[in-house]
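During the second year of the project, the team shifted from modelling isolated chains to modelling whole assemblies. The rationale, set out in the original proposal, was that interfaces cannot be judged from single-chain predictions alone. As a representative example for this report, we include one of the complexes processed in the last quarter. Its constituent sequences, exactly as entered into the pipeline, are reproduced here:
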Amino acid sequence: MNSTVGVFMTRMAILFLISLPAPKRCSSADELDFNRDVRPLLADRCYACHGPDEQAREAGLRLDRRDSAVGTGNKVGPIVPGKPSLSELVHRIENNDPGEMMPPPSHNKPLTPGEKKVLIGWISQGAKYQPHWSLVPPRREAVPSNDDKDNRHFQGNAIDHFVLAQLEELDLSPSPIAPPETLIRRVTLDLTGFPPTPAEIHAFLNDTREDAYERLVDRLMRTTAYAERRTQDWLDVARYADTRGYADDKTRAIWPWRDWVVRAIDRNMPFDRFTIEQLAGDMLPDATQEQLLATAFHRNAPQARGMTYPVEEYRIKGVVDRVNTTGRVWLGLTMGCVECHDHKFDPITQRDYYSMLAIFNNIEHQGVGHGQGGPTMDYRLPIEKQVPARATELKRLLAELANAQRKLPNPRRIDAAKIIGQWKGPAVVKDPNSYSVTGNLTIMAKVRTNQPVADIVSKYDWRGKQRSYLFGIGGEGDTTSLPGHLFFWVSSQAESFNGVTVYSSRAVNDGRDHHVAVEFVAGKSVRLFIDGIEDKAVIRSGAVPASIAKSDRPLAIGSGYNNSRKPNAFPFKGELSEVWLSDQPLGDALSIGSAGDRVSALLAEIRKLESVRSEQAVVTLVPVMRERPLSKSRETFIHLRGNFLNHGEQVFPAVPAVFGVPQSDQPANRLEFARWLVNGDNPLVARVVVNRFWQSYFGHGLVRTPDDFGAQGTPPTHPRLLDWLATEFVESGWDMKRINRLIVTSATYRQSARVTPVAGKRDPENRLLTRMTRVRLPAEQLRDQALAVSGLLVKKIGGPPVFPIQARGYWQQRVLPGEWKSSTGEDRYRRTLYTYWRRMALHPSLELLNAPAREGCVVRRDVSNIPTQALVLFNDPIFNEAAMAFASRLVREVKAGETKRLELAFRLALSRLPKPDEKEKFLAYLARQRKDLRRDLPATKALTGGKQRAGATDLAVWTLACSIILNLDETITRP
Amino acid sequence: MNEKQDKKSKLDGILRRGFLQESALGLGSIALASLLPSESRAAHRVCSESERAIGKLHLPPKAKRVIFLFMAGGPSHVDLFDPKPLLNKMDGQKIPPHLLKDHQQFALIRGMPALKASPYQFTRHGESGTIVSNLMPHLATVVDELAVIRSMKTTTNVHDPGVNMMNCGSVLFGRPTLGAWLSYGLGSENSNLPNYIVLTSGPLQGSQPLLQSFWGNGFLDSKHQGVPLRKGPEPVLHLNNPDGVTSKRRREQLDLLAWMNHRRHDELNDPEILSRVASYEMAFRMQSSVPELADIGQESKETLAAYGAVPGNHSLANNCLLARRLVERGVRFVQLYDRGWDSHTDIENQHKRQCHAADRPVAALLKDLKQRDLLDDTLVIWGGEFGRTPVAQVSGKTYGRDHHPHGFTMFLAGGGVKAGLTYGATDEFGYHAAENVVHVRDLHATILHLLGIDHDRFKFRFKGLDLGLTGVESTRVVKELIA
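Output from the structure prediction step:
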């Protein structure tokens, strides 16, 4: 780009000056600019048939490239630079013959006379083309210097100089800095998602240091609440939900990834790493479980169960979603249309699209039945999350344990001749007579499960009076059994029990791998082994029988019997492998001897450490990405018209040609692609990302189409600022907190939100940033603020999704499978970030307040202002509970004095004190309601949650008032 | 050009250009006029007519509002509207393979199924001689109002994508539904009620769930989303005040709220605050207008009997009556979902049940609309997301019919539709739409046409594309259906 802002805007005006009923002023001396004046016209009117889309191209002509437009060699194109009268294009656009005119009448997009003038003017000036602005790398220009004395206040940082330079050029002024009470409310809501507390407000108002505001920002950015708030935005673009989508919409455990994002942002992970780990963490050398978890980013894509239709179709849908999401989130390109045909406006072809698809096409997939449609991991929650002090100790113990466990019993060392049966997983032996062992017996297996009850090996049906032997976990749920503990039953009689039962002294259903074994020596002993260590504290009852009864039940591996001919009870649902059976006592071979004592001791210590954890330590079946080995790479083809069955040419991993990456440097796989995205040379990535940061605070980005930086998107309102921020982002080492801090510490951000008559008329949408834009709080913050203000909020970080109260009977009426059981206790009042997100039936109040269901990537939320939102904020049980709790907080914290209570209420909800006229109005309201409610006991009771006690009228009156306060435009809008 | 003018023009450029680029460019000059900033910032955010996207309609409208009777699951055309003697004759024989040439497989049937005759009698009715089976005796009395389309065709045989196709013109999730498009394009005639209302009925067990996206606004502003009316004492979610808050108390709350909001507006001058006040006031009006409209007890005994409606019931009959009450009050788009038409097993009993519940009220609705002079400008649409196979899906001793997108029947009535018409035909097995095929896209174009909208000019710029109810595939307004 070679233009300055001034020239930029002059040119920008022309097009619309001519097309709108405004005075016509098109000076012929003004040079037209391709990107600003011409490309949008060509793109909108011509490219559909004369653009990048090869299939739709008419007459072999493309107007998006100069060589084709002006012709090459002897071939004369429709544009003759400098000579409109010789240009076929000019004849066509000025022709009124329906058969000749361009655009043709069927296109329904005629050119206005003014627009024709622009095209003709541009041709007469030489028909110069330019690359699209967003594909030219950002250029870091010197920060403009402003010495305007009127705007001294407006020189917070570089951002302000760029904004001011543009305003001054237009003879406009920025607004004054907002009052401190507004500032702390604005920045606290924006950075943490909660309003400031009275104590925080007090501290800030009394901080007279010059950098009090910057200190406030730094304090807020250090909180985990900051990371949670930024995560909320990322969940939208990542289309995070707790369910799989489509009609089936089953729950899946992908929340550990959500917590990964919180941790990553909390630690200010640089954006390049943030990108690489989420797109390709599984492919990093020696990937940690955290890096593997990060890749759940692209498993957020909706995944159908894929029963009815070819699994391949639903697999492809997932891959397509990954390509489109990557395009929108990192490149700001709309790629969805290219699935079926070349892009009509941007230089992206179907070949480009499927080459990018090839990058994402190499992930394992298993979409059969209710499978997860892809690879999963068992994710061990990071210990430091819950017991930070012990994390180091645990790490050391685990390392030592791993060392000791290398000596674990290896069944392969056992003489094969001694093994009479081995299985790799659940199985049923056909012949009921085989494995009717009557004497000594050893069973070994590798298990991993969270089940309290599961059979490992069974030839035992006590209800069916077919007892023999049985090895498993949790004693088939018998009333006297120990859930989760290893057990072994053996009987010398099939009809009635006559034998021994043994339970291990500890549970093995902790979701970790265990090698378990039982050794039975007829008439003598029975021993249990866990991880090569004999359990010396088994709980045993009955005498060891001299023989084992025969049962007519076939030997079942991974299931058992419950008065059934078939083994269809107590199924083993975790991982069961290496099940070995021997008719000899092999206990000693299974023990790791003295090494076992060390392991034993270590395990005891670890268990002690871990017992302080309150949550489940392992989350199973978390969807993640795993690359297929190179030797098994999938072939990728262009899908003609987007039909996966209709193969075109084969393609190989590559980025779109428009980026000009030479063949030798093309990324061969996901990891290389991710690294390419953030190598600092890409013209789009940094711009697209800082633009979203900007949007998060100002309601709109500098580019108002945050997912379309292409020809059909809006050009930036502040191109030089955008470029400066983008280069700053890359040069700072992709420091996300740094850019966010720059934005919120700018004077631009700190301006008053008052709309002056001049600005309101000339710039109603605040594109030029003459003031701060007020933003209706997102759905999450509306609830979170109500919880915080009322004192109900529970600030617990992370964990499985929770179920806030929901309007009664909502799911039943919608006839949705499953049930919404509102959480009780702490989980009822957790931050909304942790609310169960069901794609096909989002919590109705969140949905009404514009939270997206996240069926796909959402780069900017719609913010509407509709009556049903008023009904939610007044009548939804969430906001009712909050109004009641808010009232009781006021009554509790201020023993007497309505004025004092009102002041606290305003401080809590609005961060400011009431003005005299407001006081007067509210006090009159309270008095009137008090008079009214004194005579209405049932209403009083209802408004105080059924409590009948002294001071109930007080509480009821305040509940009504608090409900008003929670509904104020000022309360629900970020000031 | 003087300096001052120059600066103003720079500003205008930056502002207008961006504004237009994000807006509905595809609407052409008509919409352009209504998109100028001054007019787009009307104080009311509840989509008044003045705020609608289409300033002046493209065509003289024949219909002003729509009632869409959506028979969810897919009714069987060969059992209701489309008699096929050859199908009956070849009952039990394997399906002729040539019928399968265009598609890969059935939704649930596997292998080569047998043709299945329809057990019903088909008779000509009315002056038009329109054919209806004896499953719908009441409907038979109003056939002279109907334009029956026997040659419908859609693109998928899966429920949700099929409903999406019928509602949004695309099998994908995330597109605006017909009601949202009309709310966006035409605005509202009523300031006390939502513009797009959804009513549901039919058996709960064994029916496909009705998803939020079935009345979604897609990428249009969420004020265009359908509002489901619920059964029971709270017809709109969150409509009722919490216990202890009487209407008078809410009014007093709103008075103080409005005073505070106006005060805030005086301070900041942000017009959005006034829109907020308007939203709250409309919510308050809805609290009385919605229960009033939902109270069918106000209707005469005769009317209730004609529909078969019983106050307090949750039925298609009640919903049909409600639909009339809604259009009477100027609601633009009413969509009724009647669940339970997805008869994979025992279709004879299941369809009998469905028709029994649907026949009388649908006929009564048409008569009632006509009697009240509403039928002329109210377009009524009846149909499902697809039809059902002329082949049997055998299941134990009974049989059902599978999903069938290749040829099925829908009907239109009122709103400028040519009454007493039977249009198009399927092949001799009722399998493929064969004559005067009407794709869902064509139906959409025709519906928009009846409402005064040119489908090719009714677009919304989203993600760089001008998207509409109809897309780039060739689409025709079925002029033959229009009176």
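Chain B is about 35% helix and 15% strand. The first strand of chain B starts at residue 65 and ends at 71.
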